[in-house]
Structure formats: C-alpha cells, structure tokens
Specification:
GO terms for molecular function: ATP binding; methionine-tRNA ligase activity. This protein is α+β, with helices and mostly antiparallel strands. The protein contains ten helices and twelve strands. The protein starts with a helix and ends in a 5-residue tail after the last helix.
C-alpha cells in the first residue's frame, strides 16, 4: 500500500515507459516472455457472445494485463477448420469444405476485430504449416513406437462409396428408441453411442442403409506412457496450480488405466496421414486441432520454435 501511494504521488510521468515489442514479437533475453493462446473457435458457425466470453475474452483480458506490466507478450488464436462438422456444414450450404472455412474464418475475424480483441495474430488450421508440423509429430510418434494398428467395425455407405463418420449417420437410439439419434450421441437421453449400435441406421447424405465393415486405423498407444506419466503427474500436482476438477479427471483416467486412442478417420477433409496403407485417411480432429496452436504461431513467424521449444524463457 505504501509503494502504491508513493507511485501515485509521483504521478504518471514517473511510470516506466510502455514496452514496444519488435514485430514479429519474439522472446527477449532477460525479459518475462508470455505466450497466450485462446481455445480455437470452431469455424462452422457465426460466433455469439457465449463464444466470445467462453473463448477469447478472458485471454484478451490477460494479454492486456501482461502488456500493462511491460511483459513481452504474444497473443495468438485462429479458427479450427478440419473435421466432420465442417463437412456436414458444407453439405448443408452446398459449398466445399474449403469454401465454408474461408467464409466463416472471415466472419470470425471481422467479429473479433469489431470487439477489439487484441490478437497479435489470428490465423487458421487449414495451412501448409499445419500439415507439415502435424505430420512431423506423427512421424516422431511412429519412430518411437507410440502408434499401433487395429481393425475397427464401422458403417459404410455403398451408394456413397465411403465409410461414414459418426455425424453422417442417423438412426434409432439403442437405449431410449429416439428415432433421430446421431452416430455419436443421442440428443434425447444424452448417452454416447457407437455408430454400429444404432438401430435402423441411415446415411445422412443419401438416406441409404449402411452396412458394417472392418477398416484399419492407427491408435496412440497411451498405455506405453503410463509408467512415465504417473511420476510426472505427481511432480506437476505438487508444484503446479491444477484445479480440483482437473486433478479429479486425470486421476480417474490413471486409475482406470489409459486406453489406446484412435487418431485417424475415414474422411476427405483433414490433414492427410503420411503412411502407406492409410493415405486415404486423415487425422482425427482431436489429434490435429491442438497442433493448430503451433502452426498458427508458425504462420505468424518462421521463428515460432523460439516460443514453443524454449523452456528456459
């Protein structure tokens, strides 16, 4: 309180001059360097106030605070553009997935600009850097033995000549008999569904009846990480600032044992899988999208690794 009163008495002229970072903003030796990202808003709709409050506003507030503290601050964000929801929206509007992404990325950018959200850079995930970085991470996982192959039973529409992603299937819920359940969830009873469990399934694209067929997919071999993950978590819980909810969820995953996680999908719209036998598939959006934080920074500056691979600063 004494220090604050003293600073107030000396007036604004005595305040340190605002830090003016170089462009592009890069880490500076000897300064506090802060990289801020907002959760990437999905590109298939017009953002509303809930999106702004729940997604970009809190990060914007923190970015402004950091700049007022004269910390060297980079704030990046962008639209999340791959996945089934984009394909579905493209079918609804009679556009290609790329046209949908171009349309809604521009809408998002305009709205955040109108709200004066202080991004240093607002990008997107459908870029060459996204492909390069995601495929590089995949190749490293493959080289270190953290991937495995397995066969999955999946619905295939013979009329459309394609395996159907969950959102391209509708049918009767096996739990409550709701007749418009999706291939991933029933909106009436709320239960998660495996698409092959649906009764009377229909292809949403042509209304044909799909058949169950086997298809090969790639999985993250998460059980291999358990031995290394548990001591890391114990150390992180002791030294970090985890919420009670985050601790509880993570403990439940460890308690139940990690399971292999599928990272590929039989879709056209996504980052291609660079492996023979899987080149007609793309990466699952939840493998691909988090890498968007790196690729968006890479589109901002070719020295992006100074932000993402520099723990000393």
């Amino acid at each position: 309180i004494t220090a604050a009163a003293d600073a107030w008495a000396r007036g604004a002229a005595a305040l340190p001059k605002p830090w003016q970072p170089q462009k592009p903003v890069l880490p500076v030796e000897g300064m506090r360097n802060v990289l801020i990202t907002s959760a990437l808003p999905y590109v298939n709709n017009v953002p509303h106030l809930g999106n702004i409050i729940g997604c970009v506003l809190s990060a914007d507030t923190f970015a402004r605070y950091c700049r007022l503290r004269n910390w060297n601050t980079l704030y990046v964000c962008g639209t999340d553009e791959y996945g089934t929801a984009t394909e579905t929206k493209a079918v609804e509007e009679g556009l290609t997935p790329q046209e949908i992404c171009n349309k809604y990325n521009a809408i998002h950018a305009d709205i955040y600009r109108w709200f004066d959200i202080s991004f240093d850079y607002f990008g997107r995930t459908t870029t060459p850097y996204q492909t390069t970085i995601a495929q590089d991470i995949f190749q490293r996982l493959l080289a270190h033995g953290f991937l495995l192959q397995d066969t999955v039973e999946q619905l295939r529409c013979e009329d459309c000549q394609r395996f159907l992603a969950d959102r391209f299937v509708e049918g009767t819920c096996p739990f409550c008999n709701y007749e418009e359940a999706r291939g991933d969830q029933c909106d009436k009873c709320g239960k998660l569904i495996n698409a092959v469990e649906l009764k009377n399934p229909q292809c949403k694209l042509c209304r044909g009846v799909p058949v169950v067929k086997p298809t090969q997919h790639l999985f993250l071999d998460l059980p291999k990480l358990e031995e290394r993950l548990e001591p890391w978590l114990e150390q992180s819980w002791a030294t970090g600032d985890w919420t009670a909810n985050a601790r509880y969820i993570t403990r439940s995953w460890i308690r139940d044992g990690l399971k292999p996680r599928c990272i590929t999908r039989d879709l056209k719209w996504g980052t291609p899988v660079p492996l023979d036998g899987f080149r007609d598939k793309v990466f699952y959006v939840w493998f691909d999208a988090p890498i968007g934080y790196l690729s968006i920074t890479a589109n901002y500056t070719d020295q992006w690794e100074r932000w993402w691979k520099n723990p000393q600063q």
